[in-house]
Structure formats: structure tokens, C-alpha cells
């Protein structure tokens, strides 16, 4: 059981297929996923009941072409700051795994990801994990 | 049960009836424009279509493009994010049929990375006496370009529902197919 599962929840998502809900993003298994149901941009917000500190992100997707990630330490989900932006290669029949380490740890209350473009009408997010440090010893959230 | 959203680009020569088709889609018979107002650049029309025999719905963002070629460059930029397209000609206007190849070429140039699909539509079927393009010719062109073919009359609201039902069910089946692929990947990887 990671902290993510107990402390974090998806507080907003732009697509809602009840069989492939955004809550699947925080499920540690990559077998379950959130489907976007058409048109871009698509976005979701993850809210932490207790603010967390992290440095490392692992983001697993399919058919995503370009995305941006934002965070805020505000109580309310506003005044987001960009932390990371990336264009991914087309990996049609495989998952796209993105690992990213920030310059320093940041305090986060809300995390927002916007999928700006896709390689298909529909893209998917399979998992999103946060780590305190970029090391195996790091505390998992 | 799912609600999908898709951008449908409607293109073709001027006065073939693109705006009329967009407006009567979804059984809005009263929305047929009796007098001609040429579209400047493009209009956006929203229509929700239920997929037959299911609880699935597709909300179409109909990108009703002008047939005037002066807008072509800007149109092509806006077409990049399309999911589907519909090329329309007027069955009484041979020239509008000849230009379908050109429209198809323009669309495929700007289709971006998306896996798109489309239909070919011969409109103004109510003017049978003035027909200049046979149904057979239309079918042949569609088949050679791997599109579905339809004839319709926006004026009489005949054959319009069939076009949108086809597009909606094809869009949903692409969605379901993608899900099956992802689930299969999940089973094979672990
Ligand atoms: N008889 C008949 N007339 C139609 C039909 N559909 C459209 N029209 C008429 O054809 C004219 C042009 O229709 P529009 O829908 O505005 O044409 P368009 O393709 O949008 O033209 P642009 O916007 O200039 O590219 C209008 O006067 C319509 O009333 C049809 O099915 N039958
Ligand atoms: Mg028009």
C-alpha cells in the first residue's frame, strides 16, 4: 500500500467512461487505465489530502503526443506552476513510460496534467507515481 | 455506456449543401436553410447522435468548412485535429463531384497524426431530374478511397440520419477496439 492510494484522489477529470475511470490512474497496476473519450486537450487533477513532497515522477500512457504537468501548494487548485512539458514518440502498440526527476523536491497539494495532443482520437493513462527522491531507497508516495 | 466526443470535418465545393447537412443532422428538419448563406471560413455545429441499439452516444463537433478555396490554408490548420471527415458533392453538379479528389487530397495533407476515417456524400437527391452524377460513380470513388458512400437530401431530410449513425457507430467501435488492444497488452505484459 503506497501513500498515493490513501492520501491522493482524482479531484477532476475531463473524460468519464465509468468502466475506465480516472481513479485508475492512481491504481498501482498498469493493467487498469483511464481512457480519454475524444478531443484534446484532456486533463485531470490529483489532490493530496496531506501535502506531499516529491522529486521523481513516473507517468505511463498510450497514444499521448504532448502533455504538460503543473503543481500547486495552494489549498485551492489554483495558481498552478508548470513543472514539466514533453512530446512523446508514437509508440502505438506499447505503453509510453516517462520518468522525470525535478531539480529539487517540491511541496504539492494539487497536481494537474494536461494532455495537449494525441496520436489517436483516444489516449489512455495507465499509472502515475511520485517518489520523494530519485533513488531506490526513496520513500514511495 | 459511453459518451464520446469527435471532431467531424465537413468539406466540399460551395453550395453543395454542407451547412444544410450539418444543421438538419440529428433530425432537426426545421433547421434546413432555405436561402443560401455562404459560410465564411467555417462554423461549428454541435450535434449528439445515439448509436443504434446501444446506450452509446457521440457528440459531434461539426466543423462546417467553407467551400471557398480562399480559406483553404486556414482551414487546413484547423483540420489537423479532426477525427473524421465527410466530403460532400451535389449530385446535380458534375464539377463538385470532380473536385472531391482535390478535397480528399487537402484533407489527407492536414490530417496530422490521427487515424482518421471518412464518408463520401452525394447531396440534393430530391433533384433526381437534374442528376449529373450516377450513384454508381459515387460508389466507385468511395470504394477506391476506402470511404463509406451515402446519398441524401438535406432538404427532405432523407438519408442524413444514416450518415451520422454510421459515423457514430464507427467512432465508438474504434474506441472499443482501442480498449481491447490495451487490455490485451496488459494481459500479455504481466
Ligand atoms: N434541393 C436541395 N437544395 C439544397 C439541399 N441542401 C442544400 N440545398 C440548398 O443549396 C444551397 C446551398 O446550401 P449550403 O448548405 O449553404 O451550401 P454549403 O455547401 O454550405 O456552401 P458554402 O458554405 O458556400 O461552402 C442553399 O440554398 C440550400 O437551401 C438539398 O438537399 N436539396
Ligand atoms: Mg456552408
Automatic annotation (TrEMBL), chain A:
It comes from the Eukaryota. Residues 13-124 form the F5/8 type C domain. GO terms for cellular component: cilium; intraciliary transport particle B. Pfam families: F5_F8_type_C (PF00754). GO terms for biological process: intraciliary transport. PANTHER family: INTRAFLAGELLAR TRANSPORT PROTEIN 25 HOMOLOG. This is F5/8 type C domain-containing protein. It comes from Rotaria sordida. The lineage of its organism: Eukaryota, Metazoa, Spiralia, Gnathifera, Rotifera.
From TrEMBL, chain B:
Gene3D superfamilies: P-loop containing nucleotide triphosphate hydrolases (3.40.50.300). Keywords: GTP-binding, Nucleotide-binding. GO terms for molecular function: GTP binding; GTPase activity. InterPro entries: P-loop_NTPase, Rab, Small_GTPase. The keyword Ribosomal protein does not apply. Pfam families: Ras. This is Uncharacterized protein. It comes from Rotaria sordida. The lineage of its organism: Eukaryota, Metazoa, Spiralia, Gnathifera, Rotifera.
Amino acid at each position: 500500500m503506497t501513500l498515493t492510494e490513501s492520501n491522493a484522489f482524482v479531484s477532476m477529470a475531463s473524460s468519464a467512461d465509468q468502466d475506465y475511470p480516472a481513479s485508475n490512474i492512481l491504481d498501482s497496476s498498469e493493467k487498469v487505465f483511464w481512457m480519454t473519450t475524444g478531443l484534446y486537450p484532456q486533463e485531470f487533477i490529483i489532490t493530496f489530502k496531506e501535502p506531499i513532497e516529491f522529486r521523481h515522477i513516473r507517468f505511463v500512457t498510450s497514444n499521448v503526443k504532448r502533455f504538460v504537468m503543473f503543481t500547486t501548494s495552494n489549498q485551492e487548485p489554483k495558481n498552478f506552476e508548470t513543472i514539466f512539458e514533453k512530446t512523446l514518440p508514437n509508440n502505438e502498440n506499447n505503453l509510453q513510460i516517462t520518468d522525470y526527476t525535478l531539480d529539487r523536491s517540491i511541496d504539492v497539494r494539487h497536481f494537474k496534467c494536461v494532455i495537449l495532443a494525441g496520436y489517436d482520437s483516444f489516449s489512455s493513462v495507465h499509472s502515475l507515481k511520485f517518489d520523494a527522491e530519485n533513488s531506490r531507497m526513496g520513500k514511495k508516495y | 455506456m459511453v459518451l464520446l466526443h469527435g471532431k467531424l470535418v465537413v468539406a466540399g465545393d460551395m453550395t453543395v449543401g454542407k451547412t444544410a447537412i450539418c444543421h438538419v443532422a440529428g433530425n432537426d428538419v426545421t433547421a434546413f436553410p432555405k436561402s443560401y448563406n455562404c459560410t465564411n471560413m467555417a462554423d461549428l455545429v454541435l450535434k449528439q447522435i445515439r448509436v443504434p441499439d446501444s446506450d452509446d452516444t457521440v457528440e459531434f463537433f461539426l466543423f462546417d468548412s467553407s467551400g471557398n478555396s480562399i480559406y483553404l490554408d486556414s482551414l487546413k490548420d484547423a483540420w489537423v485535429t479532426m477525427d473524421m471527415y465527410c466530403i460532400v458533392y451535389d449530385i446535380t453538379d458534375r464539377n463538385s463531384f470532380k473536385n472531391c479528389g482535390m478535397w480528399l487530397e487537402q484533407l489527407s495533407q492536414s490530417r496530422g497524426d490521427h487515424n482518421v476515417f471518412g464518408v463520401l456524400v452525394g447531396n440534393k437527391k430530391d433533384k433526381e431530374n437534374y442528376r449529373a452524377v450516377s450513384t454508381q460513380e459515387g460508389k466507385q470513388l468511395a470504394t477506391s478511397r476506402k470511404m463509406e458512400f451515402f446519398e441524401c437530401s438535406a432538404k427532405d431530410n432523407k438519408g442524413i440520419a444514416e450518415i451520422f449513425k454510421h459515423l457514430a457507430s464507427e467512432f465508438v467501435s474504434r474506441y472499443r477496439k482501442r480498449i481491447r488492444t490495451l487490455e490485451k497488452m496488459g494481459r500479455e505484459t504481466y
